[in-house]
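Workshop exercise sheet. Pairs work together: one partner reads the sequence aloud, the other fills in the structure field after running the prediction. Swap roles for the next sheet.
Pair: D.N. / O.F.
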Amino acid sequence: MNLYAMLQARAEGGRPLRVGLIGAGKFGTMFLSQARHTKGLHVMCIADLDVGRARAALAATGWPQESYGAASAAKALDEGSTFITDDADALINAGGLEVVIEATGVPDIGIAHALKCFAQNRHVVMVNVEADALAGPLLAARAAAAGVVYSMAYGDQPALIAEQVDWARACGFDVVAAGKGTKYLPEYNQSTPDTVWDHYGLTPEQAATSGMNSKMFNSFLDGTKSAIEMAAVANACNLTPAPGGLKFPPCGIDDLAQVLKPESDGGQLHHSGTVEVISSLERDGGDVLRDLRWGVFVSFKAPSDYVERCFREYGVVTDDSGRYSVLYRPFHLIGLELGISVISAGLLGQPTGVAGNFLADAVATAKRDLGIGEVLDGEGGFTVYGSLVPAADSHINGYLPIGLASGVPLNTAIPAGQPIRFADVKIDETSQAVLFRRQMEAQFDPGDGPF
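Structure field:
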């Protein structure tokens, strides 16, 4: 890719790639830790509602205090320093800015920020996968129309999966499945912020001491984050979820090729060309041997007898037929790797994964029996979890995306395990996020689906 060489050329020419970060949480802080050591990157602006948190992030990652005291974005541009503000619009409108990292994690805010960036000719790296799962295809189309890049965030699992899918297809392989590992049991769907730490083996006091957010960590556990991320992967990689959504089969790395193939060939996939998440726990709660909890994978099939023979000759690990194999990466480094997306967008004009179709959706599903008048509390909360469904099923049934399932009251009683529909809630149809989602559905109509 020559990203490093291109970046050094910018540095030597006195034209560092100028970057703005919206959201100084964990992901953003990890990016800052590496950006400080990346010659040719200038973190010109940071916006966070809590300016103190942004300053703390810089201090924690070793930035000298004098480097982030700029009085304005214009001063930061001139001095090569960093301006900190609580106003995201001030960051987006700052002269000289080239790439904006959106890392708020709030879908409606992410959409609003991205649209403002496009209007100001800024490339956008969307760490906010919640926004991408809600309306990524239309965001990508709007970016293309504006002549800028809209990209998934390298270091997060969806972008790494997209890279592996691209590798497989560029090699001439048919992609059978793509996905990631996680810690999952079916009963985790009912987990709440009050029960989450038991599943992680922590006390609430230990979690609080470490600054861990119970709602965020619960979204990792209850299946919501997996549904959101696999919706993003499916829409970026032209893959279709199974009608029943994710199965989370327990699987270690030695069994990947055997499990990640279609049921018709002895595997556990509904069809070829899908997404899946594998669990690091057996269904009885025991640990899977040599699990892939933190990793990502793509499974693929030899297209001919000749290629199957090459697999054998070069020690490729396959299923028992010799036809299916899997490429996996055992970890992802979150914000530590984010610079790859920033540099790719800013210098190559290329995304590290981008939504192109509306094939999958992450929809709100009741964690328990819910009554009329109850207010949904969104991702990782007490009322709903996200389920992955084919976009056609979501569209035809009018399912409510998990990204819009926060702060809205029910006007219908919903039994546990049932997806919630737009018609089941009182929602502001005039809000930007809802209108944008409706536009996305109209422009990227998934039709009746493949099944």
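Discussion prompt: The chain has three domains: 3-155+335-348, 158-184+223-331, 360-443. What would you look at next?
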